[in-house]
Design a protein that fits this description.
Keywords: Metal-binding, Molybdenum, Signal. By secondary structure, the chain is of the alpha/beta class. Helix content is 37%, strand content 20%. It has two domains: 6-114 and 218-251, 3-Layer(aba) Sandwich (D-Maltodextrin-Binding Protein, domain 2); 117-214, Periplasmic binding protein-like II (D-Maltodextrin-Binding Protein, domain 2, 3-Layer(aba) Sandwich). The strands form two sheets. It has a five-stranded mixed β-sheet.
């Protein structure tokens, strides 16, 4: 399987940025010698942006089926270390990527996106939560990501910077679980990424806490060394890094790397 052509990526970029006709020319992509499934392990906060990118790769390469597994970056890294058959790993932080790269389990990692935190609350913000201090108020049920998860590490930094100490009702293994608890009413508030708020309209609302812009999560991506589909895996990485991929990520609220 060869990489996506630069011409194909350019057409995708133009289409996504509104500079091309609504019906883009059909670009001939190189065909795979056989159907193949590409396994992408991605931080939970990358859903649904990576679903959209997976669809773009499949459209350009009809023989490819992209399967994305979403979870906390630390969980995914542990699975890859244990030999899980991943082809691509996209982490929400460098801390969980670096040991894999240092151990020769991935190729070189490249930063492709950034993200910041928001306070997730129920629609309408019924408890009037306006700042980090409110998360520690008596009677407010707050959930956070676990410390080893990127959103948990970022939350700890944000709270420490603000001098706020709180005991969360639970510590979740990925940011999606925090969103779910707030959306279901199991929790009153939680710290999630800005992109999670954007991805869940009507389920949660976001409050921007002071100091959020000083705690930016940086996302790296790399091909897993033992990938059985290394060229196709690199094609997905190339798409993520391309103008087309960056336009998709920006549309979902991610910052530039």
């Amino acid at each position: 399987m060869t990489r996506l052509s630069l011409a194909a990526l350019a057409v995708l970029a133009l289409a996504l940025t509104g500079c091309a006709p609504s019906t883009a020319p059909n670009i001939a992509a190189a065909s795979a010698t056989a159907d193949q499934t590409l396994s992408v392990y991605a931080a939970a906060s990358l859903n649904p942006a990576f679903d959209e990118l997976a669809t773009l790769l499949e459209k350009q390469n009809p023989g490819v089926d992209v399967q994305v597994t979403y979870d906390g970056s630390s969980t995914l890294a542990t699975q890859i270390e244990a030999g899980a058959p991943a082809d691509v790993f996209a982490s929400a932080d460098q801390k969980n990527m670096q040991p894999l790269a240092d151990g020769g389990l991935t190729g070189p990692a490249t930063l492709f996106a950034g993200n910041t935190l928001r306070i997730a609350v129920a629609p309408g913000n019924p408890l009037g939560i306006e700042n980090l201090e409110d998360l520690a108020r008596s009677g407010v049920i707050t959930v956070l990501c676990a410390a080893q998860v990127p959103c948990g590490a970022a939350s700890a930094t944000l709270l420490a910077n603000a001098g706020v100490i709180l005991t969360p009702a639970s510590e979740e293994q990925n940011v999606t679980a925090v969103v779910t608890k707030v959306a279901s009413g199991e929790a009153d508030a939680g710290l999630v990424y800005a992109t999670d708020v954007a991805a869940n309209p009507g389920r949660i609302e976001g409050v921007t806490p002071a100091g959020a812009d000083a705690v930016v999560g940086h996302y790296p991506i790399a091909v897993v060394k033992e990938s059985a589909h290394a060229e196709t895996a690199q094609a997905f990485v190339d798409l993520v890094l391309s103008p087309a991929g960056q336009a998709v990520l920006a549309a979902h609220g991610f910052l530039a790397p």
